[in-house]
Amino acid sequence: MSIAARLATLRKQKGLTQQALADAIGLPITQIKRYEAGTSQPSLEAIKKIARTLRVTTDSLIFEEEELEADADLAMQFQAIASMPRKQQSVIKQLLEGMIIKYGAERWSSRLK
């Protein structure tokens, strides 16, 4: 589901009209209509205001539910790491950060080719 569809669904679930949402976040109704039609993307500031008004997380507006779920194996590994001493957790975090940065750099460089 797109941001546009999630926004419209959440707004309706909360019983708000487009005008009420627009008034609550200080935007013109035409902008809310554009967001819900998918012809315009909300700014980060607008997303924050929308999330506060609808009482949801910004993640729930932006991401699909399955994008936020952790892999079961990774979840178990993270639980194991959580029980380790802080010093070992710090080392593991540094290793993970390095691998994530390396992966991101490889992805970007492959796109440029």
Automatic annotation (TrEMBL):
Stated name of the protein: HTH cro/C1-type domain-containing protein
Species name: Paraburkholderia caffeinilytica
Keyword DNA-binding applies: yes
Occurrences of domain HTH cro/C1-type (ranges): 7-61
Pfam families: HTH_3
Entry-linked Gene3D superfamilies: lambda repressor-like DNA-binding domains
Key words, A-Z: DNA-binding
SUPFAM superfamilies for the chain: lambda repressor-like DNA-binding domains
Origin: domain of life: Bacteria
